[in-house]
Input
Amino acid sequence: MKREDHEDMTAAATDPAPETAEPSPTGALSQLIQEALDKGKSLRELGKVAVDRKTGTKISWQYFQKLLKNPPAAAPNPVQIGAIAAALGKPEERIKAAVAEQWLGYRATELAGYGEPVRVIVAHLGDMSEREQRRWLALIEADERSRRED
Output
């Protein structure tokens, strides 16, 4: 073995570059909450609008913090799901799918409960490149934001 080879083998270990480090395993619902925070919402803001439309039941910003940092063993109940959906501005079905994935390890792959137009739209999106899908997602989210602001 050459001396220079030996020197390379004894060099101090370094931390991996941030872009190559393994991502922390975060549940699907926790990810949706984090996305809302990344877009500028605060936990307190989420708590103010976290009201189930059917029952009027509210959940606190602390519950969002718990879901994000240390999710409880039990999944949110249907009323809590409704309040989370309201706070995140997402359909309840999207929140239910995230809850099923995070707590049950079940990933919804069907479009149960949606009509034929939605299935056709999703089929078109499924045939697009990732770049095109991101573009359409941005368009849909922009439309959703503008309707909420009206």
About this structure: The mean pLDDT is 81. The helical segments are 3-9, 28-38, 43-49, 61-69, 78-88, 92-104, 116-126, 130-149. The longest helix spans residues 130-149.
